[in-house]
Amino acid sequence: MARRIQAALVCGGQWHDFDYARLQLLTELAAYEQVHTRVCADYDCLDTLASVNPLITYTCNVVPSDEQCAALAAFLAGGGRWLALHATNAAIVPAPPTADHLFSTPALPGELAEMLGSRFLGHPPIAPYTVAPSTSDHPFTAGIGSFAVTDELYISELHPPLQVLAHTNFVGESTGFAEGHTTVDEPRPVLYMKQHGAGAVCYFTLGHCRGRFDLADLGVEDLGEVDRGSWNVPEYRTILRRCLRWAVTGQLEPTP
């Protein structure tokens, strides 16, 4: 018998076009008539997390409190499915005026990095790069070959074990950040799963988007253009749709 599914979408933060991302995600969720989605700008509204499944987050510099981290841990332990998108793992603060960088990325509170499987350290300037499936037999990447994106390439501190499903390679500087500078050419996870008790996190780092006025707080009043990152890339849309299907239904089955 069909029943209503209560989902929660946390979408907000800094330096991105959250209105666009929110609209895209809600449009995808609208394909599931049984889903009722509670929309929040941060974690403060998740007082009913015990009655929610799935949780979907698209944030940047939105950090839960220690109490909220404990609630997230309980959510996962109880079988929760958390689809974490783009900069969910990012805490970013301005560096002191005397520093040789613009931003620092402090430790995440509680067990958040362990839960998510990663902590954002930095990213190089936005430029094209290639994403390659790490496996051909997972439903999220089945039938998808390597594809090009122009997106933020995240260098993260990893907290294994992770089931890496797609990756890229990068060696170089995360310009403007205190950390995230690499000298070793090794795969950088772009899409992965991490199990937590009866629950799981799916993390997908792609999905940058920015409007003309989203850097006003950094002194850039008008970028003069709109950046949709990977949102116009068919492979990204296909993988995102499959991840959302898992989040909603809990099923790992190949879909178009």
UniProtKB/TrEMBL annotation:
Which intervals of the chain form a coiled coil? none
Q: Which residues form the signal peptide?
A: none
Every copy of the ThuA-like domain together lies at: 16-211
One Pfam match: ThuA
Highest taxon in the source lineage:
Bacteria
- What name does this protein carry? ThuA-like domain-containing protein
Give the species: Mycolicibacter longobardus
